[in-house]
Request: fold
Amino acid sequence: MILFATSDKGGTGRSVTSCNVALRCALQHKDVCYLDFDFGSPTAGAIFHVDSVARGIAGGCGLHSYLEGSVAAPAELDLWRHIERAELQPRPAGAGRLVLLPGEEGGGEFPIDDEMIDRCQRLLRRLAEEFELVIVDLSAGRSYALQLALEVTARPALRAVTTRWLVFHRWTRQHIIAAAGLAYGEHGIVATAAAKGHNHDRLDDSVRFVRTAVPAPESPQFASLLPTQAAWLQETDAELQKLAARRGVGRSVLLGSVPLDPVLQWREQLILDSDVWTLRIANKETSAALDALADDVLNDDAWEGL
Amino acid sequence: MGAEGGGCAEAGDATSAGGRSDVLVGEVRTGLLANSRALTEPEATAVVALRPGSQVRVSVRPVPHAVSPGLTLGVHCPVPSASGTRCDGLGTVLSRASLTSGRLVQASTHARIVLGGRGPAVEGHRPWAHHLVHPGAIEVVGRLPADDLADGFLLTATGDGPGAVLDLGAVCGRLLDQVQESPILDQKPPFRARRTRFRFVLLPCRHTAAGESFRDSGSEDSGTTFGPSPAPGHVCRVDFVVADETLRTLRIHGSGLGLVSVVGLCEDLALHDWLLTTVQHVVAGSRVRAGGGGRLSSQLKPVIDHLLHVWMPAARVGEELLPVWAGLEQRAGFSRQWESLVGWIRDQLALSLLAGLGDGAR
Amino acid sequence: MTGVDVVFGETSATDRTVEIPLSHLSVELGHLYMEELVDGSVDLAAYFGRIASWTGPDQLADLARVPRSRLRASTCVLVDDYAAAPIGPDVVVPRLIAAARSAGLTIDYIARESGCAAPLGGVGALAGLQPAESLADLVESLIVADPAAGFNGSRPPPHENGWLCNGVRSPADGARQAMRAAVAWQPPVENRAHRHSIFLDVEIWREQASGRLWSCPFLATVWQLLRLGQLRVLGQPAVTPVDIDPDDLPTTWTQFPTIARLPGRGAPFAAYRTLSVLDGRFLPVEHAVRMTLGQVAVDPTVAEQTLRRAGREKVPLPAELPDRVGHVFLGG
Reply:
């Protein structure tokens, strides 16, 4: 399965959430690979705690060079050998493969052409052959990366491969409207895909939303709120729920919600059990939400048509 | 007016004077076919009918096997060298794709690299058509020892990387992709498996191991190492290395061996190595995850369904190359390891049947 | 175990490639555009007269490199009917035969250019495998492009856009990453140029609404390969000449065989070498043909069979295809 991670706006926590999902799926025995298609700012290495590729890989062998045609295959990093977190060394028993295809240090956005679409399609099909889950983290908004993803998935060789789309958005008015626009609006994912030859209904069925940085009023974080503040929080949340439903991004297409957590917001890192239980820097709700999201990503029932 | 031929080359390899030697280099990539079930013979034939009008070779014993026509690609670039010596080569590489048992897919690419030649062909004055007369040969300008070339080719860290040197792996990988993209395939393999890369070189016999006898001891000087030789071909040394999780290398020293049969041997070895690697991986995973209660791990089922019957070592290997298989069996213990894995899987199967019976009784 | 040698073979596992009869030389007696045949602007008798002075038996034997007494040479004409064919075989063929005869020439075979692009028939026995759609498709799949210096196989070969050249094109403005510099113009370069480049870029096909349109030089290359007897479909001859009766000719070219044999004692159509006697205006086309032929790798079995037979017949034969092709270009 190929999972495209998108968001209309930057700062949604799309990349950090996707990286955490990738890790959790690999820990649950799945072979997973992660492609950094955030071409303007390829920093997945930093989230995965791989310092050597924190800003993309050097030496002209990353995804940029591959898509431009200057190398025959992009570099693949076995993350179990590179993640600099003691808890993940050595590779946990029974874990599946976890591989990062980094972008390039100093890489920028680039317009796409037919040969690039060929190369991208070839790469994704090969990865889908070897990995159970291929996560492609796309640049925010209506980007070249998103266009490329829609082009390649319309190709016959990839039509047979299961592809799914996750739209990340924060739990705010602006973000809800933007995410709905990216998915269903003019020149949005569904409309563009249909124009490129995708089956409209099938694609429509394969889009789900993930809410990020969601304040949970019942969590201990908000225990010290004044009653007026708590009431306001409840009221705002209810309004946002209504807005989301009106815009077509309500519960029926919701795959998961990740609570507001400073570790995700500030550090953008992998959340391990030790961060929750030993270091106690991350909330257990966050960890549980990421676990649930990882389960649902691979659970066909969660993607059943409506 | 009129066409004046520049000399009339005879079929077969002309031997030029002076220390010429040939090195065969090649790579085989092996993977699981991207289809939910094994292909039938007509389907398999259609998948590897990669060139219109050319024949697909099909055989059904001991396991179904379909081979695409040979595909030729022109290259003009430095050949590999461990010492970093830059020697330009010009010529063609040959590739073919094959399906075994309608389940496993392989692409293989090879070239005979002609070292130490002199004259117009390598100096760059011969027209391109000259290189198309005997596809699969690359003529090299300048002096490059055969071992330097072989080391460079086998030890290159990854292939696929940026760089100017001959990249057989990329050619091979592209061909494998092309086969896997066939519209006949449903892109739903029963399980995920890594591709493996198998690099090989064939060098002339130089190092006479103690106790070995040569019928044709002069062969190393005659410059016809791979040509049709009156003496039966033979192998004098084989080195097989498991370089990393997916890369294996094989170095054969031999004389009088047919190139086509060496490539066939390497495809056969690569196939069985892939089977071992893949089944070993699945078994290792199942051992860790064994849920107890005698349940058969869900990962084992597709292995039993699709892979166990494909093991047919040396099925398509010529007489003169059988010693290579025999040697590998003795040292690397291919079949012993396979039997042990298969035995474990059968035990699991038996246990799960017993557990099933127990459940039924209760 | 006893020492019995067991040889196991499966017939389907081995290629079967059929040999075809070969003359020493295939002589093409001129080439005319269809318009010229329609409007009668060319004095055909005079035209063949000029050709005849270059195709005497001594000249042909010399070109074929065999003694005159042994020479097997066949003659042929290719009718240009691919683009448009307002008049049919019933008009054109008798006119060509009569004009050639008046110049003392015999035409053994008449072929139609559209046959090189038409769907292939006659190999139905081997259905199940996809035969080539047409001779042109077949030949296109045999192209092995002359690699530019530095081509190491890491990228796919670049001839898939319908053009074939003999070197390196001027770099085009391709896709660039944001915030990177543009590239300056560079001249094209001929591979292995003799001091200076003569760069040639030939259109092989063009995609049109009605399908793929093959270029004239490419169909002429297919024609040369047919005359050289180098094309097979699944091991069978790609085209076999068909006998026709000059007194009973069809009115349209689609009813006409790809290669028609006229009554007479003509030598086999295909030959070790070819000679084409043409107007000088066809020089660019034939330049393109030679370049394309130099990048065609025919089935190695066929190539080997031909060389071996030439050796047995003691006919000197160059291994490279372009060297088997000769031309005479006539001035105005």
Summary: Chain B touches chain C through 59 residues (CB under 8 Å).
